[in-house]
Design goal:
Strand content: 25-35%
CATH topology of the largest domain: Rossmann fold
Number of domains: 2
CATH architecture of the largest domain: 3-Layer(aba) Sandwich
Number of strands: 19
Shape: elongated
CATH superfamily of the largest domain: CoaB-like
Number of helices: 13
Bound molecules: flavin mononucleotide
Mean pLDDT: 93
CATH class of the largest domain: Alpha Beta
Strand order of the largest sheet: 12-11-8-13-16-17-18-19
Largest sheet: 8 strands, mixed
Helix content: 25-40%
Radius of gyration: 25 Å
């Protein structure tokens, strides 16, 4: 998920360093945007080194890129920690007087703020009114912790620990606490020690589904069959090659399984244990492989999505995919045409027991689209 992390000028700003580390370790893409005052409490060098991105707070630099709009629109989530009393007031009043507030006002992303300040500032009715205004607008305000403040005094107003902030910020996500198992790529059935029967699947659709599920808060396990595309961070990955290895790797529980891998329908009855010599005719005996997803749903209480690849499209594809829905006993089928193989985009027929819907777009967009339709079935 692309997270815009705002840091404002409170004493707890130093804790933001740990926050960046935790978010990045969880696989998120973090863009850090401190206020000018925050840089009195934590160094720009630290923030740039930890986030891996340069910081430029001047609204009027790189004007052609309209950076405040770009920053706001590119964020999937905005988190401001620590949030000062001044920041809460300016956000409640819609005052766009720095890059952070401009980016926030230019964004439709969900916003989470973690206020931190002295107890008197927190309990001041101006601050409390601002908090109520923000909450009424759907902004999630994390209750400050009670404890030691800047000096020797203590009370409510302390910034919660970074681990708690990460948990709070990501807990509003629809797949939080759900285990999602995704298969991707194409299996290879050995003919001999070097040759195999394979298919043209690259695994891109499964990888995009894994990213989308992770960004919606799921704990994702990706079973990658001969996938050469980069594996997304924050996703547990099991590498497999053949149908048998895939079946073994699928021996685990989950809440949602998405079978996006192109699984061979046949395997060689007796693969050679040594490299076959050229120069003579060869007949291979093929045996059918198991329908892994049908077997999985028969033995697990799980929400399931399978993919159906066909040379057909339109009504014929809907007909084929609907038949597979019933044959396999899955909840949803994503029907797609062979032209999607290796492409960044796809045109799909999404089949549920209630009917079908068509969609086109990039594989990333379609992954989110598919999961949004599956999520209600999980709750
Ligand atoms: C040592 C020191 C610590 C401060 N700590 C806080 C704090 O924890 N919370 C807060 O709301 N303001 C705090 N302030 C005041 C803010 O820095 C001040 O309101 C500033 O204008 C906030 O700017 P910003 O919201 O644009 O980052 C502190 C000021 C100083 C000098």
């Amino acid at each position: 998920m692309r997270i815009l992390l705002g840091i404002t000028g409170g004493i707890a700003a130093y804790k933001a360093a740990n926050l960046i580390r935790l978010l990045k370790e969880a696989g998120h893409d973090v863009t850090v945007l401190p206020t000018k005052n925050a840089l009195n409490f934590i160094g720009e060098t630290t923030l740039e080194a930890l986030s891996g991105k340069n910081i430029d707070l001047d609204m009027y630099h790189d004007v052609a890129d309209v950076r405040h709009v770009e920053l706001g629109q590119q964020a999937d989530l905005i988190l401001v920690a620590p949030a000062t009393a001044s920041f809460l007031a300016r956000l409640a009043g819609g005052v766009a007087d720095d890059l952070l507030l401009n980016a926030i006002l230019a964004s439709r992303a969900p916003i989470v703020v973690a206020p931190a300040m002295h107890t008197e500032m927190w309990q001041n009715s101006a601050t409390q009114d601002n908090v109520s205004t923000l909450q009424a607008r759907g902004i999630r305000v994390m209750e400050p912790a009670v404890g030691r403040l800047t000096g020797s005094d203590s009370g409510p107003g302390r910034m919660p620990e970074p681990e708690e902030i990460v948990e709070f910020a990501l807990s509003g996500l629809p797949l939080q606490g759900k285990r999602v198992l995704i298969t991707a790529g194409g299996t290879r059935e050995p003919i001999d020690t070097v040759r195999f029967i394979g298919n043209a699947s690259t695994g891109r659709m499964g990888i995009e589904l894994a990213k989308a599920a992770r960004d919606l808060g799921a704990t994702v396990t990706l079973i990658a069959a001969n996938v050469e595309t980069a594996i997304p961070a924050g996703v547990e990955t099991i590498r497999v090659s053949s149908v048998d290895e895939l079946e073994l790797a699928m021996d685990r529980d989950c809440d949602l399984i998405v079978m996006a891998a192109a699984v061979s329908d046949f395997k060689v009855a007796k693969p050679s244990t040594e490299k076959l010599k050229r120069g003579h005719a060869l007949t291979l005996e093929l045996t059918p492989t198991k329908d892994l997803i049908a077997g999985y749903v028969a033995n697990h209480k799980v929400v399931s999505v399978a993919f159906a690849l066909s040379d057909s499209n339109g009504e014929k594809l809907v007909e084929i995919a609907t038949q597979k829905l019933w044959d396999k006993g899955v909840d949803f089928i994503v029907g797609n045409s062979v032209i999607a193989l290796g492409s960044d985009s796809n045109a799909i027929e999404f089949i549920s027991r209630d009917g079908s819907e068509s969609a086109t777009g990039s594989k990333a967009e379609l992954s989110r689209w598919i999961l949004e339709r599956v999520i209600p079935k999980l709750s």
